[in-house]
Design a protein that fits this description.
There is one protein chain. The chain is mainly α and 415 residues long. The protein is built from twelve helices and two strands; from the N terminus they run αααββααααααααα. The protein has helices spanning 2-11, 30-43, 54-68, 85-111, 117-143, 145-164, 172-199, 204-244, 259-279, 281-308, 315-363, 393-409, and strands at residues 74-77, 80-83. The longest helix is centred in the last third of the chain and has 49 residues, at 315-363. The protein starts with a helix and ends in a 6-residue tail after the last helix. It is a multi-pass membrane protein. It is found in: Cell membrane. It comes from Tetragonisca angustula. The chain crosses the membrane at residues 54-76, 88-106, 176-192, 204-225, 279-303, 315-339, 388-412.
Length: 415
């Protein structure tokens, strides 16, 4: 026993050798590795909520611009868009900035000596109307933060549900369109600013301040344009899904998405569109009035100067007026195209559903074929204060109205 204790005591002084089994290096297989990477990409879950969502990532440069101008007082709490008091400081800051800018502009206009009083009246009216519209947009943004957040979150919920049905959205085209839009706007407003500085002998500070009012108004227009376009894209996608799952006229084919699911998705989209139209109803009216006043006045000056002052015309001034017209025309087209596209796609769904019922009733004559007729009476429309609906056909009426007032103004020479 003493001998065993001695052996055990001596063995504790020696470290135990751990035998590591030899492993063979696994050969690198390019095809196997590529297949694993591809499988991992397919298995990766796409986010439809939060700042990392496909849509938000695609339009983030525009959202950042909106935040700077106080038109996006929202932030993400988790994966949900919520009103942000921190971002709201930009809204109040720009309300103060706009008030200061209009004060400076009025002082400048009062110090200028013009040959005709109508020139002062027109310019003062233009900048005053634009200032009031810009202030209304900021006030509306403050009071509709929660409603706008609900619309955005519901739209993200819809994208996730479409993905679960096997129709995920790819926002590559949206990202490309966002950058094209940003670059075009930078070019237009830079041209307006630079030509205006030299044509009217303005300082950089005054010119930038004057332009800030108009860029802020344009930003609010394009904010509405973006939201309406996103809804139109989803109506278009839902229409394609409904067409793909229509019952065949001959034979049998199972549908991946049922008619009930399509109707539920369509109803959700209609509720979002109607809520958005209700928020911006009066804004649409004010935007169109503001753009019409500025377009008429610019055309008035261009035509009057070309006809009466051809020999002494300032071509830099003429180019500046044309740049303004391009900026106003882009906003006009953005409003009308977005509203017309979305309403057309939304109001086409009832036709598809009626066709769906017609195909079913041919096979099952005793089935109820009138269950989707009520959708025909529910038409999406974006109304401008309840006075008229925004569609492409409205452009012809606006052009006719502007032509009438332009002829009246041309009876008063500007110089």
């Amino acid at each position: 026993m003493n001998f065993l204790k001695f052996i055990r005591k001596e063995l504790t002084h020696y470290q135990r050798k751990v035998v590591v089994p030899k492993t063979r290096a696994k050969p690198f297989d390019v095809e196997t590795t590529l297949e694993e990477v591809t499988r991992a990409k397919k298995a990766r879950v796409k986010k439809f909520h939060g700042p990392d969502s496909l849509l938000y990532s695609a339009i983030y440069p525009v959202v950042f611009t909106m935040k700077v101008f106080g038109l996006a007082p929202y932030d993400f709490t988790g994966d949900q868009l919520t009103p942000s008091n921190c971002c709201l400081l930009f809204t109040f800051a720009f309300m103060a900035i706009y008030c200061h800018i209009i004060y400076i502009v009025y002082l400048r206009f009062l110090s200028l000596q013009r040959n005709k009083a109508i020139l002062t009246v027109v310019e003062t009216t233009k900048v005053t109307v634009n200032y009031l519209v810009a202030m209304y947009d900021l006030v509306l943004t403050i009071f509709t933060r929660k409603a706008f957040s609900r619309i955005w979150n519901a739209q993200q919920d819809l994208d996730e549900r479409l993905s679960q049905l096997g129709y995920p959205r790819k926002e590559v085209k949206t990202k490309i369109a966002t950058w094209i839009f940003l670059i075009s706007q930078i070019i237009v407003w830079t041209a307006v600013s630079q030509t205006g500085m030299y044509a009217f002998n303005e300082t950089w500070l005054f010119n930038t301040s004057y332009m800030c009012l108009y860029i802020g108004t344009a930003a609010s227009v394009y904010k509405f344009f973006g939201m309406v376009s996103f809804l139109g894209q989803r109506f278009h996608q839902l229409n394609k899904i409904a067409k793909e799952n229509l019952p065949p006229r001959v034979g049998y084919k199972s549908s991946r998405v049922s008619r009930k699911t399509i109707q539920e998705l369509y109803n959700d989209l209609m509720l979002l569109s109607e809520a958005l139209g209700s928020i911006y109803s009066w804004s649409l009216f004010f935007w169109l009035a503001n753009l019409s006043i500025h377009t008429i006045s610019n055309l008035y000056f261009i035509i009057d100067w070309v006809i009466l002052n051809w020999s002494s015309i300032g071509w830099l001034l003429m180019f500046n007026m044309w740049c303004w017209l391009v900026g106003f025309a882009m906003q006009f087209l953005a409003l009308h195209i977005a509203c017309d596209y979305t309403t057309t796609e939304a109001n086409f769904m009832p036709v598809i559903l009626i066709d769906w019922d017609a195909r079913i009733v041919r096979r099952f004559p005793y089935d109820d074929s009138f269950r989707t007729l009520h959708f025909l009476n529910r038409r999406l429309r974006f109304s401008a204060g309840g006075f008229f609906d925004i569609r492409l056909s409205l452009l012809s009426s606006i052009v006719g109205m502007m032509s009438t007032y332009l002829i009246i103004l041309l009876q008063f020479p500007s110089t």
